[in-house]
Structure formats: structure tokens, C-alpha cells
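Recall the central idea of this unit: under ordinary conditions, the amino acid sequence of a chain determines the structure it adopts. In this exercise we apply that idea directly, starting from the sequence alone.
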Amino acid sequence: MTTKEQLSVLLKEELTARGLSISALAKEAGVTFEVARRIVQGQSESSWITTNKLLAPLGMQLVLTPVPALVPAPPTDPALTGAGGSA
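Accordingly, the structure predicted from this sequence is:
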């Protein structure tokens, strides 16, 4: 499933759970109905800013979290850390 499809599913589920229309979401988010409709229906990609605008009225936000396996480990070479044993 693509990112835009995942966002579409999430938005549809949240709108249904809250009994909100796309029109109400667009108004609360400060975006046009057409922008909201296309994103909710999975017809358009969304920018970071627009995604957060659409999520905010639903009590959500998009955040970045480091993935531990992808974060480089600190250097262990004493020459790189300045912890060399030379006097």
C-alpha cells in the first residue's frame, strides 16, 4: 500500500469514527474542499504541511522518529573520539 493510500484509509476511518464530512474536515484544516477530497479519496499526494493540517482536527500529527537500526553508531576509533592513549 502506498503512502497516499495509507493516509486515505486513515482519514476515512477517522472521519467515519467522528461522524465528520470531508467538507467539515477541510474547513477545520484550513484547506479547500477539493484538496481535502482528493487526499481523502487517495487521488493526490499530500505535502507534509497539508497532511498535518488535515490530521490536526482529528487530534493527530505527523512526526519523524529515528529508526534505531538506521541511526549511525558513534565512532569507536580512539583517533576519531579524541580518547587516544597518547600523552
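The helical segments are 3-18, 22-29, 33-40, 48-55, 78-81.
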